[in-house]
Amino acid sequence: MSWQALVEGNPELAAYGVTRFTDRVAYLATVDKEGNPRAHPVSPQLRENRLFIFMYPTSPKAHDLQRGSHYALHCSVENNSGGGGEFYVRGVAHQNTNSADWELVRPGNQHEFGTKYILFELSVQQAFSMQYVENDTVTNRWRQSDAT
Q1: What is the pLDDT of residue 117?
Q2: Exposed/middle/buried for residue 93 (C-beta within 10 Å: 0-12, 13-18, 19+)
Q3: Residue 108: per-residue pLDDT
Q4: 72: which residues sit within 8 A by CB, 6+ positions away?
C-alpha cells in the first residue's frame, strides 16, 4: 500500500508524518545478509501521496532492500526529549526504475538522478506517532489491516 492508503485511513497521522519527513533526515532500518539490523540516514521524498528514497546503487542499504525488502523509517527528533515528536512507518521497499517517478522526485533535489542514484518506493503497512504534549504523550497508530 502506498502513502495514499495512510492518507485515506488516518489523515491526521499522515499529515503529521509529512511534517516530520519533509526536508529532514530520517533513519532507515534494514537487515543485512546475516540477519543483523542496520540504520542509515536518508532523505525521504513525499510526492503525490507516495513515499520515495534514493541512494547510491552500491550502498549497503540498497543491497539490503534489493535482497529483503522490509524496512522501517523513523524521523529524526530535535533533542533528547523527543522535540518535535516521533513518527515512523514500516513496510516493503520496491526499486523503481520508472522515469516518470524519477521526475516526481527530481524537483528540489540537486542530485544526479538515473546514473548515480537508484530510487525505491516505500509501501506503508504501518505508521506510528508519539507527540510530547506538556506532561503527557499522545500516540496515534495505523495499520494496513485497519484499511481493509
Answers
A1: 86
A2: buried
A3: 60
A4: 28, 29, 88, 89, 90
The residues near 49 (Cβ < 8 Å, ≥ 6 apart) are 2, 3, 4, 7
- Mean pLDDT, the chain, whole residue set: 90
Cα separation, 85 vs 131, in Å, equals: 4
Please write the tens of the pLDDT for every residue from 122-144: 999 999 999 998 889 999 999 99
Question: Which domains does the chain show, CATH number per domain?
Answer: 3-147 (2.30.110.10)
Q: What angle do CA 122, 113, 127 make, to 5 degrees?
A: 15
**N- to C-terminal Cα distance for the chain?**
11
